[in-house]
Structure formats: C-alpha cells, structure tokens
Amino acid sequence: MDGAYDGDAIPDTPLWAQITNTTAEGTELYLAPMTGIGRAYLKIQEVAAGSASTRLHSHRAHDEYYLIEKGTGTLRMGRHTAPVVPGTLVAKPAGPQFPTHIVADQGEAVTLLNIEVYLDARLWLGACDLMAYPDDGELLMVGPGWENMVPKKAIQWADDVFSHDFTGYARQTDGTAVNASFPGHPPRQEKDPPKKVPQDS
C-alpha cells in the first residue's frame, strides 16, 4: 500500500504528517487514530542516539509495552538496567513499582513500538492518570480535571513539566528545579521556578 509504514522510515504523506511529531529527541508516529481500537494507544518511536524514549515514569491507569524494532539501547526499570535489541519486548504493569524508559545510549537510534493498554476501556480519551517520575521527584496528574504536578506539598501548573520533558532536573519541595543529568537528558538551563496554582487561604 502506497505510504504504508515500512519499518525503516516514516512516509512523507499528508496523512502520516498529521499523526507524526518530530523533535530533536526523535520522531513519534501515532497509530491509534488509524486502528479504531478503543482500549489501546499505539505509536512508533524513533529515538535519536543519545536520547531517551521519554522520562523514567510509571502509569496508574494502564499497562505499557515496548517492542524494540531496530537499534540497540538500554532499558531502565526502577533501579535496574538491561540491554535491549531488536525483538526485545518489555512489559510494564500499571503502578509506581515499575517506572521505565528506553535510552538510546549505544551510539545509534532506537526504533520501538509503544503500546499502552488501558485497564478500563472507558478511560480511553478520557483517562485520569497518575504518573510518577522518580528521577525528577514529581507526580503528574493528567486527564479531565487534572493538569497538575505535585512535588510533595507544592502544587504547580503542569506546563513546566511538559516544556522540560527532555531535560534533566530534580524538583524541590518549594517548586524550584535543580539542574541534573540523567541518561538521555541534558540538564535544563532555566532557573526560574514555575508558577504556583493559586490556593485558597
């Protein structure tokens, strides 16, 4: 089929362009809109050499799987690491016990299929998820009515988290961020703390 994904390069067609996101860290191809599956989220990621698939994280609302299609790298799962090669399948159950990501730290890009399966079909496109980021000391709440991240007692707008998704830092209890280096993520440069959500006195 003309324009179909060939496992090596993302096609340059209007349809694929609409569901493709390219950044310095790599390219993401969102497949779920084309499948009609109501309980699963699917995307193909091309992770640039030296970067990571995402920040080390866990989900409360769904299980997640990584199938390595091309390239070699490292799986981080909590405090553990393991090599990944084409054909490696990683299964991450829902819950904070298994924060994971894939780091392209072997001098080459890594292509993977990322699958997220929601525990409740009703959550798809309306999910409230609690995501833990142990490297950064953050809890992120997303979904209808939830767009905040929590470093312990400080509650802040989540746009600071999203705008620094590929930079390293450790969140402090007062909401400020201290620059830090983590695998696949250079230190962030901004020193201004994010804006706090107004709270009732």
What features would you describe in this structure?
The chain is mainly beta and 201 residues long. The protein folds into 2 domains: 1-119, Jelly Rolls; 126-201, no CATH class. It has helices spanning 14-18, 32-35, 159-163; strands at 20-23, 26-30, 40-47, 62-70, 73-77, 80-84, 89-92, 100-103, 110-118, 129-133, 138-143, 146-150, 156-157, 169-171, 177-179. Strands 1-2-3-9-4-7 form a 6-stranded antiparallel beta sheet. Strands 10-11-12-13 form a 4-stranded antiparallel beta sheet. Strands 6-5-8 form a 3-stranded antiparallel beta sheet, with no helix packed on it. The longest helix has 5 residues, at 14-18. Residues 1-7 and 13-17 have low confidence and may be disordered.
Kindly name the structural category: mainly beta
Can you say what the CATH homologous superfamily of the largest domain is?
Answer: Jelly Rolls
Sheet with the most strands, sense and barrel status: 6 strands, antiparallel
Strand order of the largest sheet: 1-2-3-9-4-7
Q: What is the second-level CATH architecture of the largest domain?
A: Sandwich
CATH topology of the largest domain: Jelly Rolls
Question: Given this structure, which CATH class of the largest domain is correct?
Answer: Mainly Beta
Break the fold down into its secondary structure elements and pairings.
Blueprint: H1 14-18, E1 20-23, E2 26-30, H2 32-35, E3 40-47, E4 62-70, E5 73-77, E6 80-84, E7 89-92, E8 100-103, E9 110-118, E10 129-133, E11 138-143, E12 146-150, E13 156-157, H3 159-163, E14 169-171, E15 177-179
Antiparallel strand pairs: 1-2, 2-3, 3-9, 4-7, 4-9, 5-6, 5-8, 10-11, 11-12, 12-13, 14-15
